[in-house]
Amino acid sequence: MLCSNLIQVLGKKEKIDSKNFIISSGSDELIELIMKAYANPSDKILSVSPTFGMISFLAQVNGIKNLAVSQKLVKKESFAKYVLNEDQFLEEALRSKIIFIARPNNPDGSVVSESFIERLVSLPVLVVIDEAYIEFSDSQSLAKWVPNYENLVVLRTFSKAYGLGGLRVGYGIMPDEIRKVIVSIKQPYNVNIAGQKAAFAALSSPLVDQRITEMKKIREWFINQLIIVQNQYKNFWIHQSEACYVLLTFESPEIPKTLYEYLYSKGILVRYYSSSDMINNLRISIGLQENMVKVIDEIKLFLKGGN
After folding, report:
1. Residue 4: band (very low, low, confident or very high) from pLDDT cuts 50, 70, 90
2. Would you identify the CATH topology of the domain 4-204?
3. How far apart are CA 292 and CA 89, in angstroms?
4. Backbone torsions φ then ψ of 188, nearest 5 degrees
5. CATH number of 208-304
6. Which tens digits make up the pLDDT trace of 267-279?
7. pLDDT tops 70 at residue 281
8. Among candidate residues 288, 253, 250, 252, the one with its CA nearest the CA of residue 268
9. What angle do CA 284, 31, 62 make, to 5 degrees?
């Protein structure tokens, strides 16, 4: 029920007491359980925009108000970046019950500073850090902070770096008092044996770290190639990502929509957004080197008018 053996392995890996761990059916389950346990319909949870869509979705499903503080899109030379007004966010945090921060953020791969998180956890509010993509980042995980704070929860998953998305295995690192509350409302036996065994195997496999290192090199190469293309066409901007994808912001919504359709016709699947705050963007996942060469070649053909 509690996946005790997997928890023991994770505790040794992270050098954190096993009493601070809970295994879940993906990290999404823990996001919802935390909402159910610590927020009422009259409460407000706080996040940023854009970010992981399941936060607002699960808040809506559970009848909880979600305030997403909009980040400002700043463009400079070849690059774009979402910038959060931290003081505004902190003001809203004082009126909130739970704060959700994805670090790195989905969809742009940005990482908020440790100093900002320190300011958040100093407030009387529950702070939840979703580290689904932390393995791809050069920034440190905040998991080791958990024993020092009563209001900090860190969520991790085997779905991304470990490639086990279809098996739905996630985990949370949290104060024991919070863990006990979550266990009391969590469905038993919802992480199956196959998922647990796959997680064990992934944790002991040297191939995972090798693949992450390779992916980061390919990501750097891909961004450098995009800079060359951007310098020629000047109609999009690149987000410097610390995740396993790269977000592109285009000068008009027509370009990403048409490019998405063009790449789809070539057998290349990228993420297109229809929501008003993301309609100028495409997100491209990092794959094998030969795959990314093809993506760059097809983007060049498209922008050259070869579509």
Report:
1. confident
2. Aspartate Aminotransferase; domain 2 (3.40.640)
3. 37
4. -80, 155
5. 3.90.1150.10
6. 999 999 988 889 9
7. yes
8. 288
9. 110
222, two tokens:
């891909």
274/272 Cα distance (integer angstroms): 7
Residues of the chain with CATH 3.90.1150.10: 208-304
Q: What are phi and psi of 185, to 5 degrees?
A: -115, 0
**∠ CA(151), CA(103), CA(203), 5° rounding?**
90
Amino acid 188: pLDDT? 80
Is-above-0.90 flag for pTM?
yes
Q: Considering the chain, tell me which residue range(s) the CATH 3.40.640.10 domain(s) occupy.
A: 4-204
How far is CA 222 from its chain centroid? 20
Compute CA distances 246 → 71, 181, 223, 285, whole Å: 18, 37, 8, 6
Q: Which helix (H) or strand (E) holds 114?
A: helix 114-121
